[in-house]
Design goal:
globular, 11 helices, disordered N terminus, mainly alpha
Amino acid sequence: MAPFTLAVDANSSSAFSSELSNQKMQNLQLEPKKFFASVKEREEKPFDFLRLLFEGVIAGGTAGVVVETALYPIDTIKTRLQAARGGGQIILKGLYSGLAGNLAGVLPASAVFVGVYEPAKQKLLRTFPENLSAVAHLTAGALGGIAASFIRVPTEVVKQRMQTGQFNSAPNAVRMIVAKEGFKGLYAGYGSFLLRDLPFDAIQFCIYEQLRLGYKLAAKRDLKDAENAVIGAFAGALTGAITTPLDVIKTRLMVQGSANQYKGIFNCVQTIVRDEGPSALLKGIGPRVMWIGIGGSIFFGVLEGTKRFLEQKRPENQAHSKSE
């Protein structure tokens, strides 16, 4: 009887293993696919709003100033291309016109954007399901854009008026704009600015964060600054190309001054297409893609490097390093 008993046990074990294997296969088939990079692979740290806000402000301000200083001439050429009507020639003098006044706005605007984006992102990633991390990044980018827009728009208006030769200094530009158009003149094209920048911020940061998360999971390590820079360049160039028509509309509305050639966003689109053809909506796409691609590389490289530096300077991390 002993051999028979052993044979029965073996068959039962085989059948049981086969059943378990089939059950695992069914579970794998029923498991929903994840279309976005997972954010649960990393160890979650306690949510410290003030610390994230402070580090975001410092990192964002630093990255914004570095990018703006390095790429301002390309931005000036792009603005003059978009503002030119018909076959007007582009003046290549004074490519740094308005840089100092622009930095006075870029520094706080970049600081506010990242200062809002970082804590919002961390909070949303803890709130949303794992497979909706892209929605968290999109939402955080839009929130950061809204907060920064109150500084960005007046800065952009003054910068572009100076780039097109209307004023020779930022204080004079502000004074004359307010005198002729009122305080609302500093917010000329605000609607078109939001129409361009909210999708831009949301899409760019979402693409960057998703690619970065996916790469980190594949590499199973933290990324180097050069790798962050390459991902940032791709995200910036792609987003810049997609949003070029919105940028053209924003530029035309901001530089028209008190002439009021365009009555709003839709009238601006209709007028440009009627008078200059649909291709005019892609004016400046070359400099824009190059500027934002290079800018994305510099911005995200500096941003991540500064964030890592500030994290290493945290008291708890310094204490941990000393104990080792």
